[in-house]
Amino acid sequence: MPYNFDALLRYHVIDECLQNNRYGCTLDFLAEKCTEALIEKGGNPGRSTVSKRTIQYDISEMRGSSLGYKAPIMVRDGKYFYSDKDFRISNATITRTDIHNISAALKMLKTYRGTVFFRNLESLVERLEQKIITSRTARQVQAVLAFEHIPESTGVEWIIPLLDAILKKQVVSITYQPFGAKKHKKFPFHPCLLKEYRNRWYLLGMNNRHKCIQTLALDRIKDFEMLPDFEYDSRQLPDHDTYFKHTIGVSISYGSKPQEIVLKFNESKLPYIKTQSLHESQEIIAETLTSITIRLLLIQNYELESLIMSFADEVEVLQPPSLRKAILRRLRKAAIMSRRNALKSESQTKPGC
């Protein structure tokens, strides 16, 4: 049963495609149409690409009885079609479970109210609320769900025009000023992916001047403009699906390779690490009553170090030596800073002579 709005949208896109294509649709065609619909409705471009496997699962769900559709979807020569030309999933009855799921999805969407992507969805959400949330069941569901509010960060005004440049495969001129830099830099850039991390947005692409892959923070972009005379070079751009696969966050230094990270957590963190992985590559390699040791395949970067530091004295870095040294260096620096602040505080509280 779907627990997100994206799945419901995909079902309706597949339904519309099968209605309008009498000779059937391939998985690639359906995946492309679903991806376009998700992005058009304000989806995250970095997360909205629909795979053929997802479409196969959606078709299986639509054929089954759990959704109430029981769609007569057939396949011949790799093309999917309705055996009943008059079938529409809109004719299917919305079940009580459907109402639960839609209500939960609407409540989640409303946490994005005021953000750039929600602006195009606001009228749709209001219409759905008018039709769905009028029932007592739906109101009860929303009353017992609470999602974290998503604040809008600086730089989001660039998302829509940059998204347009990516979709049209256009080179842009970026005026960029990193934090701490006194002057800005201006350079041609081949954008290929917008990525969100911890409520900040980043742009992945190739710096045309240095011919290197870079990730730019949108809140540090001062200006940009289209460069129609530049040829967009997609051959030099990274694979969207794999570039950040072995990364916590967005920082990837040139030439960095994934390496085996081994972390040992004490008993206070044992149940949390077991029930929520730090990364999809996480593997438990040892477990006792007092500790748990995990292995991850990750690129060492600032975000990984910050994540480890957030566990303070509840974790020990076993491998690699370079990461262990980096964490020890940061711990020593934090200890020195704390001692200085403590001494300064003591001197300020002593009575004057």
How would you sum up this structure, described in words?
- The protein is of the alpha+beta class.
- The chain folds into four domains: 5-93, Arc Repressor Mutant, subunit A (Orthogonal Bundle); 107-143, no CATH class; 156-236, SH3 type barrels (Roll); 259-337, Alpha-Beta Plaits (2-Layer Sandwich), CATH 3.30.70.
- It contains ten helices and eleven strands.
- It has a five-stranded antiparallel sheet with strand order 6-5-4-3-7. The chain has a four-stranded antiparallel sheet with strand order 9-10-8-11.
- A hairpin with an 8-residue loop joins strand 3 (172-176) and strand 4.
- Helix 2 (27-40) packs across helix 3 (52-63), helix 4 packs antiparallel against helix 5 (122-132) and helix 4 (96-110) packs across helix 6.
- The protein is globular and about 85 Å long.
- It starts with a helix and ends with a helix.
- The mean pLDDT is 84.
